Amino acid sequence: MRAKMIAPLDPDIAEMESRWRESGIPGLYVGRNGPVSRERARNIRALLYPKPKLPAGKLERFSIPGPNGPITVEVVQPVEGRPLGTLVYYHGGGYVVGDIDSHQAHAIRFANRSRVVVLNVDYRLAPEHPFPQGVNDAFAGAQWASENLGKLGGADKPLALGGDSAGGNFAAVTAIRARDVGIKIAAQVLIYGALGAGGGGGNADVASMYFGPDLGAAAKKTIEASPSVADLKGIAPAIIGVGSHDFLYEDSVAYAAKLREAGVPLIYREYPNLNHGFFSYTAISPACAAAADQLCDDLRSLLG
Predict the structure, then answer these.
(1) What is the domain range of residue 130?
(2) Which residue stretches of 130-232 are H helix?
(3) What is the mean pLDDT of residues 102-130?
(4) Over the stretch 1-53, which tens digit does the pLDDT of each residue have?
(5) At how many degrees (to 10) do helices 133-147 and 166-181 cross?
(6) Which one of 90, 119, 170, 230 is at 20 to 30 Å from 99 when CA atoms are compared?
(7) pLDDT averaged over every residue in the chain
(8) Whole-prediction pTM value?
(9) Distance (Å, rounded) from C-alpha 289 to C-alpha 109?
(10) Is residue 162 situated within a structural domain?
(11) Residue 221 — pLDDT band, cuts 50, 70, 90?
């Protein structure tokens, strides 16, 4: 196992976490109630880490067909320059919280910095829509993008996948499924993804809401839940970004090793002073903004 690079937590993040503790607001998933968790997440973002103010290109929101009904998506154009390709992006949030709005700045950063058209997918959330509805929505987004590249970054330009946390899980699973059905993927960006066996990132509240009480341990170890159990040969080149203070750190390290073993081209970025969620903290932490920009630059290098 790779030795972890030890450094103090970024002081801006440490201050934010201290303010969260002082606020008395519980952890996002405590109580195992989807609507309550989403309201709590909105309040925490507004209080502690608002969106960065980034120049945005054209934004267009509409619905595409999905396996369980229409899926809302938002297309984000780069603010300038001809696109190098298309990125299908899946937001994080433990499969329970998050949406297009909470992660719109992620999509804008990728659009501008990587110079891609981003399709931001608003997949269905647990517990109202438990496994595998969210991951099936994610794959439907990639399928739609592959069939409509002319409306996105260009029919002659590459298609990439990306996501953070739960969205990183969806991006990894979708990359595997895309390989299996012949959809060509040029790159996958896995930002502190839930990539290990068991799903839920070890959080019992998340696992309970996403998988439900009746889904056994064997189901949690399927490829659709845990990409680490799959044969990874022939999947798209990968970019992995994770902080050493991340509770999913070992997931990223282990998945990177599996990718290397399978001969998959890999850019691995480990940030010694960052933790889970750093891509969301760019407005309060220069270190987080620098890490996010580097991952965007890595994608541009693969596509360009």
Answers:
(1) 11-303
(2) 133-147, 166-181, 204-211, 217-220
(3) 98
(4) 556 667 999 999 999 999 999 999 999 999 999 999 999 999 999 999 999 99
(5) 50
(6) 230
(7) 95
(8) 0.97
(9) 10
(10) yes
(11) confident
Question: Catalytic amino acids?
Answer: 165, 246, 276
Q: Is residue 5 part of a domain?
A: no
Give the DSSP per-residue string, 251-301.
HHHHHHHHHHHTT--EEEEEETT--TTGGG-TTT-HHHHHHHHHHHHHHHH
Amino acid identity, position 216: G
- Give just the sign of the alpha carbon dihedral 145, 148, 153, 155: positive
- At 97, the amino acid letter reads V
What's at 101, amino acid-wise? Answer: D
Half-sphere exposure at residue 42, Cβ-oriented, CA atoms within 13 angstroms? 8
Instruction: Report whether 212 contacts 203 (CB < 8 A).
Output: no
Half-sphere exposure of 24 (CA within 13 A, CB side): 0
158: cis peptide before it, omega within 30°? no
> For the chain, how many structural domains are there in total?
1
Instruction: Judge whether 2 lies within some domain.
Output: no
> Is 6 within the bounds of a domain?
no
CATH of the domain at 259: 3.40.50.1820
Question: Which tokens hold the place of 99?
Answer: 């949406």
